[in-house]
Amino acid sequence: MSDSRDRMLQARVRLDLGSTEENDAIREVADTLRDHPGVADFTTFVDAVLERQSVDPPLLGHGIALPHARTHAVTEIVTAFGVSPKDIPFGPDATPVRFVVLIGTPPNRASEYLAWVAALVRRLADADVRDALLDSDDPRRFLETLAG
Length: 148
Prior knowledge:
Blueprint: H1 3-10, E1 12-14, H2 22-30, H3 42-55, E2 59-61, E3 64-65, E4 68-70, E5 78-90, E6 95-105, H4 110-124, H5 127-135, H6 139-147
Helix pairs in contact: 1-6
């Protein structure tokens, strides 16, 4: 099994996000990582993500937002996915987003982080995969679909 596939299967998932605002959606997805052993300081982690988001909100197209932070508040790369039944406006242009992919990485794992994001982008570029993920009603099935 590849590192990317393993990481996909170990991610946290929140289906049916209730938030209608960017920062609230990020917090809602982040909450799935509250008890993650790789998150040393949850509040600092979320604050770092929100600060990064306010400066340069990364949007991948296809309704995908990638809020993330490199921070000492995490001890390993952590990932959580959120799916919204409705568009959530993200960024200064209120770009409609249905997928929130939240990633935290320690500062010393930048190359591993970049490889991870590249794997996610390749997978999420497939419209059939995105449609299947939107239709998923079970977190495990969501992760298995994502992992391929």
